[in-house]
Amino acid sequence: MIASVTGRVDHVGLDACVLSTGGIGYRVQATPGTLAGLRAGAEASLATTLVVREDSMTLFGFANAEERDVFDTLLTVSGVGPRLALAMLAVHSPDELRSAVAIEDLKALTRVPGIGQKGARRIVLELGDRLGPAADGTTAAVPAAAEGGRTDVVAALIGLGWAAKQAESAVDAVLAEEDTSVTGDTGAVLRASLLRLGGGVRG
Fold this sequence. Notes:
This protein has helices spanning about 30-35, 65-75, 80-90, 95-100, 105-110, 115-125, 145-160, 165-175, 185-195; strands at about 5-10, 15-20, 25-30, 45-55, 55-60. With about 200 residues, the protein is α+β, with helices and mostly antiparallel strands. The protein folds into three domains: about 5-60, CATH 2.40.50.140; about 65-125, DNA polymerase, domain 1, CATH 1.10.150; about 145-195, Orthogonal Bundle (Helicase, Ruva Protein, domain 3). A hairpin with a 3-residue loop joins strand 1 and strand 2.
């Protein structure tokens, strides 16, 4: 993994920059806020993460390691890819995202282009407290007990477009598995249920 890149700024575009170091120019995707702090010809250092796909390798850059770590965590949510995770950090600071998830502020999350009510609900459920506490000490609610978590996950799946019977069957199957390590974690149960249903979003 390329954790950071330090070098001369050769170019600053609308959604990416080029940093040159050791005779190599690295094209780095970044948020408008990060790019605004760069100047062509000046030295700069960005925290980075390399996203590898079957047909591409893309380097994403951030003003600091905190933004990079939040980006990496966002990528673990079903349906959130690098572009959407970057858009979330373009609209909200890491601490704003922590607060939004902790208090389940769906309205704040839907201000990000590409995130609707269903997506915001899924993000809140899957992230839980994995982003850590906000600066004001706000933390996500403690995961519900198995039965309460079951109700929440079934409701979330129905909200994502699955039929009630399909949702209930998938959740019950996950909770009935011998590996019960996820049963007290609503986000983990949701992820496992989505995988069992095929990972898609209906409607």
